[in-house]
């Protein structure tokens, strides 16, 4: 099974790339990794790349909403690179697309 998240940190910037399915099982790996990234000392920017996601469910969406509010609370600039069209559509259908800081990438 592929690792659902890869995180890299350079100075005040972190990048997290998600891949595969972001469901309840993956949440147990993804959420702690995102929390560790936010805990990096001096972190200013977190880029989340969803371009390799195949699937997301309500559990994954909940994690992204919590991440967005936590990043805002900590003053971390969060940007999210959209998922492939078929996955991105879930954000549109559920009405949470406007609540998340998607980039035009």
Explain what you see.
The protein is of the alpha/beta class. It is 40% helix and 31% strand. The protein has one domain: Transcription Regulator spoIIAA, CATH 3.30.750. The chain has a four-stranded mixed sheet. Strand 3, helix 2 and strand 4 form a beta-alpha-beta unit. Helix 1 packs parallel to helix 2. The longest helix has 17 residues, at 58-74. The chain starts with a strand and ends in an 11-residue tail after the last helix.
Brief synopsis:
With 105 residues, this protein is of the alpha/beta class.
By CATH, the superfamily comes out as STAS domain
Q: How many domains?
A: 1
List the strand order in the largest sheet: 1-2-3-4
What fold name goes in the CATH topology slot? Transcription Regulator spoIIAA
Largest sheet: 4 strands, mixed
**Total number of β-strand segments?**
4
Assembly category = single chain
Distance between the termini: 28 Å
- The averaged pLDDT comes out at 95
Q: Which range best describes the helical content: under 10%, 10-25%, 25-40%, 40-55%, 55-70% or over 70%?
A: 40-55%
Q: Please tell me the CATH architecture by its name.
A: 2-Layer Sandwich
